[in-house]
Write the structure tokens for this entry.
Amino acid sequence: MVDHQGFRRKFGVLGPSTNTIVQPDFDDMRPYGVTNHYSRIYTPNANAVSNESFRAGAEVIASNVLDAVRSVMTCAPDYLVMGMSAVTFFDGAKGADAFVKQVEEVSGVKISIGSHACTAALNAYGGVKRIAVLSPYWPVMNTEVARYFGDMGFTTVRDVPLQCRSWTAIAEVDDARLCAVLKQLDGDDVDAIVQVGTNLSMVRLAAFAELWLGKPVIAINTATYWHALRTNGIMDKKGGFGRLMSDF
């Protein structure tokens, strides 16, 4: 017997309770026969995030992840998808692997996380060594992102942290600002641009930016959902979300 609507796969999606972007993004990329079941990680909204407080705030979210895992497992998902990126970059590749191990031991199923999904996406494009990073984070967290990508064999040439002052403010960043930052990050010394921070709405803008920049522009929500689909043998292609979803 299989689930009536999720007869190909049921995904349990984990995301901060303040996040309003992951759920609609993932649903927009959802192929027929796959269903997404969102479990909210309790997250007090911080209204004065700073360089000093960012990691501490993100670690509060991380400490609540396993409760969300246990909650979503009651619907018997086949696979988990992590809809928060910061905690998947902490402490480099070693930290990402430890996070995966912890969640999979508690849940009994596999998980896709943003950091490793972005690595898989960069490798899918091929020939990428030097990247630029756009995030809603503060500099202290961008350092962790660069550390992770360094562990995975990529050089972060430059980065822009948007320094959003609350978790919900991340979702309020508009396309005009993001376009300006993409232009600031681009250059002949960069092979690809990676956007991290799952509450930043960039799945469609990244696809458009690939056309006018002529290089991979990877939105973390696209990479994470693509990774979950491909890991589960679901090879459906979909336009409007960049070459990752249409070509690979």
Notes: Residues 25 and 59 are 24 Å apart (CA to CA).
